[in-house]
Amino acid sequence: MRVAYICADPGIPVFGTKGASVHVQEIVRAWRARGAEVHVYCTRLGDHRPHDLEDVAVTVMPVGKGRGATDEERTADREQQVADVSRRLARAAIADEVDVVYERFSLFSVAMSLVAQRLDVPAYLEVNAPLVEEQRDHRILVDEAWARGALRAQLHAATRVAAVSRPVADWCLAQAGDPELAARVVVAPNGVNVDRIAPVVPGTEPTVLFVGTLKPWHGTEHLIRAAALAGRRWRLRIVGDGPQGSALRDLADSLGVAVDFVGAVPPEGIPAAMAGAWVAAAPYPEQRDQYFSPLKVFEYSAAALPVVASRVGQIPTIVRDGETGLLVEPSRPDQLAAAIDRLVADAATARRMGAAGRELMTGRHTWEKVLARTIEGEHARV
Fold first, then answer.
1. What is the C-alpha separation between 13 and 24, in angstroms, rounded?
2. pLDDT, tens digit, for every residue of 325-336?
3. Contact present, 300 and 308 (Cβ < 8 Å)
4. Which superkingdom does the taxonomy of this entry point to (predicted)?
5. Cα–Cα distance between 269 and 179 in angstroms, integer?
6. Is the pTM of this model over 0.85?
């Protein structure tokens, strides 16, 4: 079985280190685990190809930065480029006579629909976010009608649509304007590679772990403030970097909190960066859009770490309060501190929660099971 994996998003290097790149790589691995021969068709390759994916065939068709005198003109040109390249990627997959086409939803791409229509093969569309609104509200979107039209074409052509969360599934249904699509939409949250992420053995010093890019929507500042409020002795380890890095270091200094800022780590380095941790934290703040399915929370549980997380969005479906971790209200450093203190003080409970989290991940949230839900429509059909 020859599978075309398509990613026309120029912001996602297929062999990169960001979360979206990890997602691409893991779905490719999951297809290969099913015996498929995968050929990746993309706009950006990246320079961190894992050893086990060195033999994957790749067709790369880059998208330029956009031409024009203004930001809007450059964005319009880039939108046109993505649309054009998506058609070229489709033609390449058609020429290769693939048996299945799987695409990670990208703005302005119609690649999957073209391959499916021409070859009459199963077609799967993975949707991870309401990208039209994200682009419009947080960046620049010139031709919104075109973006929505391309999405509708993809949705209508898909054998099945895999939405990362129920809010994203609802968004897909609203965009399609076709009630019959509901029978072909499944909710397929993110997963974790339980072979790559092994159980962590706690070290001698109580250590609380955060992994992620240092951006406002991760709420890392609340975790630093929680460390300042702690009633027990524990050290904070922050793995990742980003726009808030400098401000967060200044905040830690001003509060007198000792924080181990590890910096950015490639995916293969995450297991080592987790070593010795006692507890993991996902301190998401209050925010309007809660459609995400955070990779790091799955990885925390796969590492057998009890998770202290904000009760927002999809988190309560991943972290079972009192069973695999503790949930707190968002943007509440005091509650974060109390929950972490409780687990640091009660090692037996922390170990029990961590083990339960690991069992949940291995039983329900491996990438192979994520792909199975997509292909077979198992569980959580809308």
1. 9
2. 999 999 999 999
3. no
4. Bacteria
5. 44
6. yes
